């Protein structure tokens, strides 16, 4: 009987799975519309009372997108006040949609990568997974890795799409 050789396992390829980089904390939306007076405007006295009495621990370790889904008058300081309370509870918070939150989380994760760990490596950026990875994360990882890698591919180690190969230096 012939032994099978796993050439993928023996290759010099380095796999990079972007979905493993993102913070696992739950993503939630905080809609300031719930604090509006008659759905139209924010009243400072009421809002400050809410800020003082709200249970902020429910955001512990979570990632929070702060929005206002109502067409209302909300002063900028209100969002800043919310941020001051989320600071000691949430892992990350942003003003914007869940998509903006994900972008910030991927930006943070990719910024934390030490590019030197990929110096002269042949990297395969995994393309399929259980968590959808937005296109901007793939573009950001290219920006991070292009200066140091010898090649970058997309897909799975057994089936890749070549994207970049460092030109050979002419002697």
From TrEMBL:
InterPro entries: DUF2480 (IPR018914)
Origin superkingdom: Bacteria
Pfam families: DUF2480
Name listed for the protein in its UniProt record: DUF2480 family protein
């Amino acid at each position: 009987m012939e032994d099978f050789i796993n050439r993928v396992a023996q290759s010099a390829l380095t796999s990079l799975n972007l979905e493993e980089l993102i913070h696992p904390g739950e993503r939630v939306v905080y809609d300031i519309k719930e604090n509006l007076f008659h759905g139209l405007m924010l009243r400072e006295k009421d809002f400050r009372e809410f800020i003082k009495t709200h249970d902020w621990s429910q955001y512990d370790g979570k990632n929070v997108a702060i929005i206002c889904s109502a067409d209302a008058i909300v002063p900028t300081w209100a969002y800043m006040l919310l941020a001051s309370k989320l600071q000691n509870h949430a892992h990350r918070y942003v003003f914007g949609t869940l998509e903006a939150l994900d972008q910030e989380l991927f930006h943070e994760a990719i910024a934390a990568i030490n590019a030197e760990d990929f110096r002269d490596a042949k990297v395969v950026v995994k393309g399929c997974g259980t968590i959808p990875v937005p296109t901007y994360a793939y573009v950001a990882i290219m920006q991070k890795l292009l200066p140091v890698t010898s090649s970058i591919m997309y897909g799975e180690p057994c089936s890749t799409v070549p994207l970049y190969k460092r030109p050979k230096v002419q002697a």
